Automatic annotation (TrEMBL):
InterPro entries reported in the protein's UniProt record: ND/Mrp_TM, NU5C-like, Proton_antipo_N
Membrane topology type: Multi-pass membrane protein
Superkingdom field: Bacteria
Compartment list: Endomembrane system; Membrane
Domain NADH-Ubiquinone oxidoreductase (complex I) chain 5 N-terminal as annotated: residue spans: 59-105
Residue ranges of every copy of the NADH:quinone oxidoreductase/Mrp antiporter transmembrane domain listed in the record: 122-397
Keywords from the named record: Membrane, Transmembrane, Transmembrane helix
Name the record gives this protein: Proton-conducting transporter membrane subunit
Annotated transmembrane regions: 6-22, 29-50, 70-90, 102-120, 126-147, 168-186, 198-221, 233-252, 258-280, 287-307, 319-342, 354-376, 396-416, 437-456, 468-488, 578-599
């Protein structure tokens, strides 16, 4: 119990305390000590698998508990979160060495880690919701860290608003499930009737789509690259973006089977669409951002075939290679001295062998080359779909094969554009700062060794399928072949390396600008939002002017004046009119009295 509480409480306390610090040295100590201690507590939880529950509020038919449950798979996610946070903090010491706002940044990263760990460990939806919302607040602060960067405040606001839009549905879904089950404990939700379960899970799915940047709420993630590169690594690898997929895996027993097709369609559209956008992206971090959207789609695909462990296995694998890629991207951009644009960012492999091999290994794992972990985690997801025998399984299987081909294509394109365009020769090799080099080496070791978790890990995964492995490798090699052919044809025509026609993305043809812009989803969302705002404004104006002003206010005034005039006119009628009204009233009262008497 103690280890479980400290797992969340220590980084949260360190983050809150760190907000009070202004001394860089003290902030650095807390920044490194908190995730290191958290990693140790996560390892302790792997041995003890603690469970803890304390009733916070009992409303008779509904109860809210402070409940934690750390199963083997949850501990694996917690270890990945703490490990990546530790390396991000170590990397940030050097990366933000001249940043005056580093103390606040380090504290926010620790709070972010604590919030994700609360989502991982919570066994009560209300308790989980606290971590869910804290992550949203921390993401806003971290993305907007470079406040003087023109695009940073807007990107942070967009991330906050889009995820909040999904969170409204998430909260409603939690309320529906809790009311139907009489408890918010995740382990007690499996018995919820199909009607409330369907409504609640569809609402929660929408919230998870927002948090994990899946279609159609993916528009916030690429602009979020305006934050520091270590923040991008943290958000994309081990926190926030993975949180939506993780929550869905916890709630798989609640899903009505026939509605899993909705998750499958969402995953399929996201995997393929984001893969095309990554292939067309024009900057280094943009490629990695769209690749995150696509890779999280694989996790949703595993949920669609009720393979929670396969989703979590890919989540942990993705945390390793995506953290490596983003942190290496920061080193590459710093050495090249550019803003990350693929037209200008280029190095020779010998300029920094560490950056070259780290990027190569990360891209190979993401593309799914054996024996790296990315191959086994993708095979686990597609193997679960292969065995499912459901319409959802068919959808995600073939979408996953197509997405694997696209992943290999954009990984190969990025590798060629970064390292094989004949960058100017340097007098000496670039020196990677010690803290950054430590983070890269640690992640390289983890990514290389991760495939072993398939054979000896906490995840219950499908058996390897030789035919599926062959198909997955063919798809990967097919993606490499398409890019290699486009690259070679550009070379044979003598196109300069810096010319846009040398970019293998020319295979996309005239559709490339639309894909590079994310199929104009951001522009369409902006137009839709403005149209909705104009419609709402017009409706409010009509409601205010026609119903409230003219009908309720002015109409009641006119009716009062008319009644007053009629009453005044009646009082000016003279004696004869008074007698007539009296006689009519007397007859009416008599008729009513006789009618009531007869009825009785």
């Amino acid at each position: 119990m103690t280890a479980g509480l400290l797992l969340i409480g220590f980084p949260a306390a360190a983050g809150l305390a760190g907000l009070l610090f202004r001394h860089r040295g003290l902030a650095r100590c807390f920044a490194l000590a908190a995730p290191a201690f958290t990693l140790w507590m996560a390892a302790m939880c792997a041995v003890t698998n603690p469970e803890f529950a304390l009733t916070l509020a009992d409303f008779g038919p509904i109860r809210v508990d402070l409940a934690l449950e750390l199963s083997g798979t949850a501990v694996a996610v917690a270890i990945a979160t703490a490990f990546v946070t530790l390396l991000v903090q170590a990397y940030s010491v050097a990366y933000l060495r001249d940043d005056p706002h580093y103390p606040a940044y380090a504290a926010q990263v620790n709070l972010f880690c604590a919030a994700m760990l609360l989502v991982v460990a919570a066994d009560d939806l209300v308790f989980l919701l606290i971590g869910w919302e804290v992550m949203g607040a921390c993401s806003y602060l971290l993305i907007a860290h470079y406040a003087k960067l023109p695009e940073a405040p807007g990107a942070a606001a967009k991330a906050f608003l889009v995820t909040r839009f999904g969170d409204v549905a998430f909260v409603l879904g939690v309320m529906v499930l809790g009311a139907a089950a009489g408890s918010f404990r995740i382990g007690e939700l499996a018995g919820v009737p199909d009607g409330p379960a369907a409504a609640g899970m569809l609402l929660i799915l929408f919230g998870c789509i927002g948090k994990s940047a899946q279609f159609p709420l993916q528009i916030w993630l690429p602009p979020a690259m305006a934050g520091p590169t270590p923040v991008s690594a943290l958000i994309h690898a081990a926190t926030m973006v993975a949180a939506g997929a993780y929550v869905l895996t916890r709630l798989i027993p609640v899903w009505p089977a026939h509605l899993l097709l909705v998750v499958a369609i969402t995953a399929a559209v996201t995997m393929v669409g984001a893969g095309l956008c990554a292939l067309a992206a024009r900057d280094l971090k943009g490629v990695l951002a769209w690749s995150t959207v696509s890779q999280v789609g694989f996790m949703f695909a595993a949920v669609a075939v009720a393979a929670g462990d396969a989703a979590l296995f890919h989540l942990v694998s993705h945390a390793g290679f995506k953290a490596l890629l983003f942190l290496t991207a920061g080193v590459v951009i710093a050495i090249a001295g550019t803003n990350g644009s693929l037209r200008t960012t280029r190095l020779r492999p010998g300029d920094s062998p560490l950056a070259f091999w780290a990027m190569t290994i990360g891209l190979a794992s993401m593309a799914g080359l054996p024996p790296l972990g990315g191959f086994y985690s993708k095979e686990a997801v597609l193997g679960a779909a292969y065995e499912a025998g459901t319409p959802a399984g068919v959808v995600v299987f073939w979408a996953g094969i197509g997405a694997s081909l696209l992943t290999a294509a954009y990984a190969a394109r990025l590798w060629l554009l970064l390292f094989w365009r004949g960058a100017p020769a340097r007098d000496e090799r670039a020196v990677v700062p010690g803290a950054e080099a430590f983070s890269l080496w640690a992640l390289v070791v983890v990514v290389v060794a991760f495939g072993g978790l398939y054979f000896a890990g906490p995840f219950h995964l499908p058996e390897l399928h030789l035919d599926l492995m062959a198909l997955l490798l063919l798809a990967t090699l097919g993606g490499f072949a398409v890019i290699a052919d486009a690259w070679w044809r550009g070379h044979r025509r003598g196109v300069p390396a810096m010319d846009g026609e040398r970019d293998p993305a020319v295979v996309l043809g005239r559709a490339r600008p639309a894909m590079a812009a994310g199929f104009y989803a951001e522009r369409l969302a902006g137009k839709a939002t403005r149209a909705i705002a104009r419609a709402a404004s017009a409706a409010a104006r009509v409601l205010d002017e026609q119903l409230v002003d003219r009908t309720a206010v002015e109409g009641s005034a006119r009716a009062t004046l008319a009644a007053a005039e009629e009453t005044a006119a009646g009082h000016r009628g003279g004696l004869v009119r008074y007698l007539r009204l009296s006689a009519a009233g007397t007859l009416l009262v008599a008729a009513v009295a006789i009618g009531v008497g007869m009825w009785s």
